[in-house]
């Protein structure tokens, strides 16, 4: 009588690429149920935009005046959706090296690292 163990063929999960090439694990894409529901129940999203505009302007909503933090968050939300999110800029340093890392010795790499303050 054979006993199935944890590592037997019947219980081993496939890790990595379990689907054949060219076949998606989610061929229908993201379910559209929630997005459709929100669009249908907020006049195509207009009610959401109007709420956020009201918060940004400091209108009384539900008997409360939005805090400055809430107003800033609403302004950011509106700007991100109207104009796109701002691009994060990162400052980098260039060593102007015209060779690949495999062509530089460990000592040279350490020296360059030390020179750049790394």
Descriptive key words:
118 residues, single chain, 0% strand, 40% helix
Describe the structure.
- With 118 residues, this protein is mainly alpha-helical.
- The protein has a domain at 33-83.
- The protein is 40% helix and 0% strand.
- It contains four helices and no strands.
- It has helices at 33-41, 46-57, 68-83, 106-115.
- The protein is flat, with a radius of gyration of 28 Å.
Characterize the overall form: flat
What is the succession of H and E elements? HHHH
Round the Cα radius of gyration to an integer and report it.
Answer: 28 Å
What oligomeric state do the depicted chains represent? Answer: single chain
Give the strand tally: 0
Strand coverage percent:
under 5%
Q: So how many helices?
A: 4
Helix/strand/pairing category = mainly alpha
Largest sheet entry: none
What's this entry about, in short?
The chain is mainly α and 118 residues long. It has helices spanning 33-41, 46-57, 68-83, 106-115.
Write the layout of secondary structure elements.
Blueprint: H1 33-41, H2 46-57, H3 68-83, H4 106-115
Helix pairs in contact: 2-3
């Amino acid at each position: 009588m054979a006993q199935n163990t944890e590592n037997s063929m019947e219980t081993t999960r496939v890790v990595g690429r379990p689907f054949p090439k060219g076949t998606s694990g989610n061929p229908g894409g993201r379910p559209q149920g929630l997005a459709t529901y929100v669009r249908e129940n907020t006049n195509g999203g207009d009610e959401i935009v109007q709420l956020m505009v009201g918060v940004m302007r400091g209108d009384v909503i539900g008997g409360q005046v939005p805090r400055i933090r809430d107003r800033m968050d609403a302004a950011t939300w509106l700007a991100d959706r109207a104009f796109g999110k701002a691009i994060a800029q990162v400052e980098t340093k260039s060593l102007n090296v015209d060779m690949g890392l495999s062509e530089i010795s460990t000592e040279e790499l350490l020296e360059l690292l030390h020179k750049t303050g790394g």
